[in-house]
Amino acid sequence: MAVAATVAISNSFTPSIRQALTPINRFSSLSSSSSTSISFPTLQSHSFVPIISSKNPNFNLLVSSAMNIEATDKVSPSSFLDRRESGVLHFVKYQGLGNDFILVDNRDSTEPRITPEQAVRLCDRNFGIGADGVIFAMPGTNGTDYTMRIFNSDGSEPEMCGNGVRCFARFIAELENLQGKQSFTIHTGAGLIVPEIQEDGKVRVDMGEPILKASDVPTKLPANKDDAVVHSELNVDGVTWHVTCVSMGNPHCVTFGTKESKDLQVDKLNLVEIGPKFEHHDVFPARTNTEFVQVHSHSHLKMHVWERGAGATLACGTGACATVVAAVLEGRAGRKCTVDLPGGPLEIEWREDDNHVYMTGPAEVVFYGSLSL
C-alpha cells in the first residue's frame, strides 16, 4: 500500500498536544515506495522549507512542507472527502485530548475499507500516519443514524471508544454540514451511544449505564459487593492492588492504589512496565483497560491509563467514565467529577436518576490526507 498524502495541520493545539503529534512529521511509506507532502498552516508560501529524502530497501520517503499551504479553516471534510478516486483512501485525523484517530468515511459500505493489518501500519508513529486507532463511519444499524467500528493500533477491534466517539461525532457533523447543537444515534459494539455536539463545539456523550456484574465485565475475580467487584485485591507480579471492575461496554480495571500504598501518585508510575501485566492478567478473559487514579478532591480526579490494544495513551473516555463510577462505588468521590488525563480534562457525571454516565470533552481536526491503496 503506497502512500501519497496532502496534509493540512491544525494550528489550534496546546504545546503538549503539538509535541505528542510530532511523529507525523516523519511520515513514511507503508510498502515499497511513497511520496508525501505535508503542509503547515503556520508557514508562509515563500518560507524556506527543507526537503528531506531517505531511501532503503523497504521504503522511499519524500517530505515537503513548501506545497499547498492550507489552513484547516479553508479545507472541510465535506469537500475533501467528496473526492472519489479509485484506489484512494481519503481520511481525516482527529484528536480528543491527544487520543488520536484516523477517521474514514465508510458510509457506503458495511465492510471497513481497510484491513486490521493495514490499520496497524497506518497507526505506526514512525512508519505510518500515527494514531491510536482507525475509526470507520458506517451506515446505521437497527434504526440508528450511523455505525462506528474501530481497529486499534495493534489490529484488535474494541467494542467502543469514548474519545473516539467524540471525534466520530465531529467528523459526521462536518461530513453532513451540520451546524450548531446536534445529536444523533450511533450503533457500536457496546450498544447504543448518543453524542450531542454543544454550541461551544465540545461533545457531550450519553455513554449509557455502567455494567458492574463481574461475569459481564468480564472478570474472573469473585464478586464481593452484590454481583460487582469493588475494592477487591488483585495480585499483579507480587504486588497486591485494590481494584474495582467496571464495563462501559468495554472492560476496565480501576485502581486507586496498592495494599501497601493507598494513595497513588500516578506521575511516578511506569505504565509501560505495569500496564501490560494488568491487560493480560488471567482474571480478565477479554483483556482489560486499566486506570490508575489519584484523588485530588471529592470532585477532582487524576488518571493515567493503559488501554487494551493501544497501550499508554493521552486520554481514554470510557476509562474516565469507569474511573468516576469506581470512585463513587468506593466512596472516594461524588457523581460529578473533573477527570484530569495527560491530554487534558474531561467532565464526567454518573446520574442517579437514569443511571447513565455522561462525558463531555473536546474533539478537533489534526489534518486531512489521502492514501493510495
Automatic annotation (TrEMBL):
InterPro entries reported in the protein's UniProt record: DAP_epimerase_AS, DAP_epimerase_DapF
Main location: plastid
Intracellular or extracellular location(s): Plastid, Chloroplast
Enzyme Commission number(s): 5.1.1.7
Pathway(s): Amino-acid biosynthesis; L-lysine biosynthesis via DAP pathway; DL-2,6-diaminopimelate from LL-2,6-diaminopimelate: step 1/1
Class in the EC hierarchy, top level: isomerase
GO biological process per UniProt: lysine biosynthetic process via diaminopimelate
GO molecular function: diaminopimelate epimerase activity
Keyword tags: Amino-acid biosynthesis, Isomerase, Lysine biosynthesis
Catalytic activity line of the entry: (2S,6S)-2,6-diaminopimelate = meso-2,6-diaminopimelate
Pfam families associated with the record: DAP_epimerase
GO cellular component terms given for this protein: chloroplast; cytosol
Family affiliation: Belongs to the diaminopimelate epimerase family.
Protein name: diaminopimelate epimerase
Species of provenance: Hevea brasiliensis
Taxonomic classification: Eukaryota, Viridiplantae, Streptophyta, Embryophyta, Tracheophyta
